Amino acid sequence: MEREWIDQSRKLIDLLALKLKPVAITFTNEKVEVENPRRTWVCRALKLAAEGQSFVIDVETSACGGGSWHCGLVEPPSGEGKRALQAFLTAGEKLTGTIVSFHRMQNLGSPPPTGISDRILIGPMEDAGMRPDIVVFLCDPEQACRLVSLDHFWDGIPPRIDVSGSLCHAAISYPIVTGRTNLTLGDWTARRMQKFDKEIVFVTIPYERMQNLILAVPRSSAGTARVELPEPIRRVFEEEGLTESP
Fold first, then answer.
1. Helix, strand, or coil here: 89?
2. What spatial distance separates the first Cα and last Cα of the chain, rounded to whole Å?
């Protein structure tokens, strides 16, 4: 079905009562016409895309050096640039205690997708003109729980979650490089600067997993399926004052 992601977006918004739109992210080398290209941070684009805006992020329009190399648009810093970054993160931004802990944070996770594409499209899933590579949900913990449950309903393989490092690493580059669903809280700098609401967490689904997630909705209790309790367990639930389903 052509542009099936539009219908998928609407179904998930209705199912989960999402306040913010699912965000489609596509890495592409195709030229995309933009009337007024805007320089912005990747984390800012994520927030505004969930509110309905669309962005084309490339070397010229990325306003954040960290976001540029985390998302593969430029080479990671080296030499004096790396030394300056080490000093900034440890003594300036104070996100990591030493240059050793910074090194571990960078090297024990996935590498950035360096050179993967010329540009990145970030916008509402329902407005995406190209097939998404990943979809990012800005949601509350209950909605995140349901998404993760639906995501591994069929294969039962537990996600390998990476919550470390920057928001653009955990929400974008890690799922792009590994093909894994991820859940992250974001990094403190991005949350503070972009004023993300306190209840927001970020769930990223690789798009190739989306169709099975949608197919799980009528079968999973995280979707629309009713919980069916054997009578002995039902009595226990009633005695404890528990409900069968949300």
1. helix
2. 32
Model confidence over 219-237: pLDDT tens digits? 999 999 988 777 776 666 6
Q: For tokens 């009337």, what's the residue?
A: 35
Question: CA 94, CA 188: separation in Å to the nearest integer?
Answer: 10
User: In which domain, by residue range, is 188 found?
Assistant: 4-76+112-240
Q: What is the average pLDDT across 105-123?
A: 92
95 lies in some domain: no
The number of folded domains in the chain is 1
Residue at 67 is within a domain: yes
Nearest to 54, CA basis, from 87, 32, 75, 70: 32
Nearby residues of 20 by Cβ (< 8 Å), 6 or more positions away:
50, 51, 137, 138, 139
Sign of CA dihedral 37, 61, 95, 84: negative
Query: In one letter, which amino acid is 35?
Result: E
CB 112 within 8 A of CB 76: yes
Calpha distance 42→203 (Å, rounded)? 16
Model pLDDT for residues 182-216, shown as the tens digit of each residue? 999 999 999 999 999 999 999 999 999 999 999 99
How distant, in Å, are the alpha carbons of 85, 94, 103, 105, 186 from that of 97?
Answer: 13, 7, 11, 11, 18
Structure token digits, residue 11? 């179904």
Distance CA 105, CA 76 (A): 14
Q: Say how many CA atoms lie within 13 Å of 6 toward its Cβ.
A: 7
